[in-house]
Amino acid sequence: MNERLSHLEVHPTVRLARSREAASASGRRVYDFGVGDPAEPTPEFVRQALLGAVPTVSDYPAVEGSLDLRQAAAEYLESRFGATLDPATQILATAGSKEAIFHLPMVLADPSTGRDRTVYGEPGYSAFRIGTTFAGLSDHPVPLSPEKRYLFGPEDVGGDVLERTEIVFLNYPHNPSGQTMPPALFEEWVAARAEHGFVLVSDEVYVDLYVGEPPHSLLEFGREGCLAVHSLSKRSGMTGYLSGIIAGDAEILAHYRKFRAGMGVSTPVWTQAAAAAAWRDQGHVEHRRKTIAAKREALLEVLQSRGLHVYPGDGSLFLWVEVPEGETDVSYAEKLLDAGIVVGPGSMFGGQKRFFRVALSPDLEACRAVADVWPTL
């Protein structure tokens, strides 16, 4: 057994699936706000693009993704962020965002150089810690808090740590709070990267799901030593397609590309065709954003009617909710489970037990109907 892995807990999606199964066993209706897997159908034109691309003879797909897919992603990045990238050298297709985040520490870090750690904010996405552990590196989670708007800058890490850091992971809009990152903080991190020499990786999978002003991308502020990870899972309702991109520094991506064939994660050609169609269309994203906003408003009304305080995040697919007085995140999640409601305890994402996460996954009817069973305080 690999003892390095012994401290890793059961993955959050597995734990949430077990909660859903427990709620279903009661026979009552289940309201699953646990995993961020939206109920809305994948757009019809995406499904048709996939079906139309299934070949008569199936060859191995290119590990970097088809040029058409990378061109479609480049068109998206330029129209959405004003970021002009070369699809041949600055964009790679990935099997979703998690795959890239998991593999980057293995590909980029050489502990013998003295750069033996990764930095990320916590609470946060579990893939940062898991990828670090599998790579045999040390991690440096930075505690995030509502008092500091779930943001962290280079001064929160310190120069001594950054000198030993191979990767700094940013994740904004933030999972689980929905906090977005201001331009000035992106600029601080790009300057710190230039000073200390680490790779700056921005997980931006929720960047198209927002309320108010569109969130920014790291690619607007820097390219050298910088990578941005995007996914179609939430943006286009394609969670099961496992399709994403990683874009930025051409030299780093050339190094990463060398090892992708050995990882066995090439995206099937039919998925690539569906992905290219999705990246090129913005109309369905606007529709999905409005749908999620309606669900957000419906759930906010339910939560506020129960006297619950919701962190004012303006991005992502989640609501980050403070637990009632006298409860912990786990005890309150268990109380909700007794009513058939599945949520993610905050400690599942590292750190605070003061909050729980509500994923805006069920349809609008369910987001309204849950008011009938949500416990009063």
Name the average pLDDT.
Answer: 93
**What CATH architecture of the largest domain do you see?**
3-Layer(aba) Sandwich
Low-pLDDT parts are none
CATH topological fold name of the largest domain: Aspartate Aminotransferase, domain 2
Counted up, domains total: 2
Q: Return the string of H and E elements.
A: HEHHEHEHEHEHEEEHHHEHEEEH
User: Per the principal axes of the C-alpha atoms, what is the gross shape?
Assistant: globular
**Largest sheet data:** 7 strands, mixed
As an assembly, this protein is single chain
CATH superfamily of the largest domain: Type I PLP-dependent aspartate aminotransferase-like (Major domain)
Helix content: 25-40%
Strand content: 5-15%
Our measurement of the CA-to-CA distance between the termini, rounded to an integer number of angstroms, reads: 46 Å
Structural key phrases:
about 40% helix; three-stranded antiparallel beta sheet; 12 helices; Aspartate Aminotransferase, domain 1; single chain; 2 domains; Aspartate Aminotransferase, domain 2; seven-stranded mixed beta sheet; alpha/beta; 12 strands; globular; about 375 residues
